[in-house]
Automatic annotation (TrEMBL):
SMART domains: HTH_MERR (SM00422). PROSITE patterns: HTH_MERR_2. Gene3D superfamilies: 1.10.1660.10. GO terms for molecular function: DNA binding; DNA-binding transcription factor activity. Keywords: DNA-binding, Repressor, Transcription, Transcription regulation. The keyword Methyltransferase does not apply. Residues 12-80 form the HTH merR-type domain. InterPro entries: DNA-bd_dom_put_sf, MerR-type_HTH_dom, MerR_fam. This is MerR family transcriptional regulator.
Amino acid sequence: MTGQLSYKNSKVITIGIVSELTGLTIRQIRYYEKRKLIFPERSEQGNRKYSFNDVEQLINIANKREEGVQTFEIRQDMLKEKRKKSGSQLRDEMLRGQINAQFGVNKDR
């Protein structure tokens, strides 16, 4: 599935539908966007568009907020997770490069 956009990542859902799916108010969703916890795209008309992954993220945020976790803490956890993933991806690429160099494999072939 490399190079293809998964349906879960496609930004096609309007804020009203997201509100219905998550139980959050539109105001709450906009607040989480302002706090940089969610990143919708904008249509040509300026409407926010969300993905299924965004919906899942909003549900996770709402659950954490119910547990008393502050938005700042949620953001910090998201940044740590992102760094962890990018570090893991970098290691994978480096290992792949070492293996390719060792065995004379060329990606362009």
